[in-house]
Amino acid sequence: MPESIRIVIIEDHQATLDGLAMGLSQESDICVIGTSLDGDEGLKMTEELSPDVVLLDLHLPGSNGPRSMVEKYSKIKGAKLVIFSAESRMAFIQAVLAMGVHAYLLKSERVSKVADTIRRVMKNESGIVSEQVKGNWKKLTRSEDEVLRMLARGMKYQDIADARTTSITTVRKQCETLLLKIGLETREQLIAWAVENGYGSLDMGLKGV
Questions:
Q1: Can you give the pTM of this predicted structure?
Q2: pLDDT, mean of residues 79-84
């Protein structure tokens, strides 16, 4: 019989923590070896227990903000990181995944989905996100991400072209492609979408959160 997947849960809402721990403990191949309500305490515990998977909320009491917390937890040898958060902004999620996180789940997910995701990351799958965000989840290029950030900050097409040392025609074409990918019709809608999804932040939604 294969060994159980050893997990640690870091979540600051007691009811959510208890529900996750109880539900996941009922899975025959998953063993909850530790829980914490605090980011700093949870980091110390995770380093001591060396779990296979860390299920981590990003908005926790403690000294670390989301970026610092992801950086520190992702450095724990052998532990795969699954984020469990209410934050659904696209820029935020993309920034987190780019830091080496294996999966990003919204808190509306059922325990069975969390358990399935844990199994998938143990098979070395990555880039897993909740179905609820996949409606807006399009594979954007780095260039498209950059254009969205500039639009969200109020930059005009010519400003973007100058900043990226390209032509205004290229910028227009990129925006037309973005409209098709995201399912919008106008530049104004694209700007609003970029702002709503966190692209206006200088740190892709992570700074100061």
A1: 0.72
A2: 96
